[in-house]
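Q: What structure does this chain adopt?
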Amino acid sequence: MPGLMLIFMVIVAIALGLLSIFNPSFAWNFNEGWKVNGDSEPSSTYLSVTKFYGLISSLFGLLLLISGILKLTL
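A:
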């Protein structure tokens, strides 16, 4: 059972990582956008850092997914 829970958490991590890569402004709107009135957008630096963290999250998730699959098969 721990292997299945690991795979579930990995799928969530990969999904959030891909969301951060392909739609980085979503994270800004979710975290900061509701705090401001009017038209406001995230900086290009914020978008770049969000994409980078999304890439790291996705890669880490893939590594854990492989680990979870190996744990289930062994």
